[in-house]
Amino acid sequence: SQERITSVKVGEKLTSDVARRAVREALATGKYARAGVEAHAEGDGVVLRLALLPRRTIASLTMTGGVLDRGETMEAAGLAEEGEVTVTALDEAKERITKLYATHGYPRAVVNVDATDTDDPRRAVVSIEIEPGAPLIIERREIKLDPKLEAEVGRLRDRYEVDPSLNPFEELLN
User: How far apart are CA 14 and CA 42, in angstroms?
Assistant: First the structure.
């Protein structure tokens, strides 16, 4: 449905003030998260068009998959029930969760963040799906010492070993 903007009248001279007034009126309804405005010539006049991003809130939030702490993942997502959700917010959540997983040793994590409409067009169910992929595993450690410290460290360096089957991120996961 088209919204009616009553603060701007047909025949009124177009100024930046008029455009701002139309945007403020649309945003004041609470139905829109963001608004932009454009004007283009038509006939002897101008058409003022508002680009409106509907405001939706998160009715519920689900997360499936993943191996990291749910709280930390949700915090990284920046989404919460009753919070606002936009396409931009979903894209940013996906990017932040992907970065979180990469930081924790899962550089191939595949993250999907999606919003599904509810019966109320102003509310959405947000689902986060995470396929972490294989973790990075340390296969070898090399210790390089300043030659001046060689005598001090001595044979300790030779006795320092790492089991390549161990996951260095195990303690973070549990």
Answer: 13
Quote the CA–CA distance of 10 and 144 in Å, as a whole number: 76
- Sequence-distant (≥ 6) Cβ neighbours of residue 61 within 8 angstroms: 74, 79, 80, 81, 125, 126, 127, 128
pLDDT digits (tens, 9 = 90+) for 35-71: 999 999 999 999 999 998 888 899 999 999 999 999 9
Which amino acid, one-letter code, is at 69? Answer: D
3-state SS of the chain? CCCCCCCCCCCCCCCHHHHHHHHHHHHHCCCEEEEEEEEEEECCEEEEEEEEEECEEEEEEEEEECCCCHHHHHHHHCCCCCCEECHHHHHHHHHHHHHHHHHCCCCCCEEEEEEEECCCCCEEEEEEEEECCCCCCCCCCCCCCCHHHHHHHCCHHHHCCCCCCCCCCHHHHC
| Pairing state between β 84-85 and 56-65 | antiparallel
pLDDT confidence of 140, banded at 50, 70, 90? Answer: confident
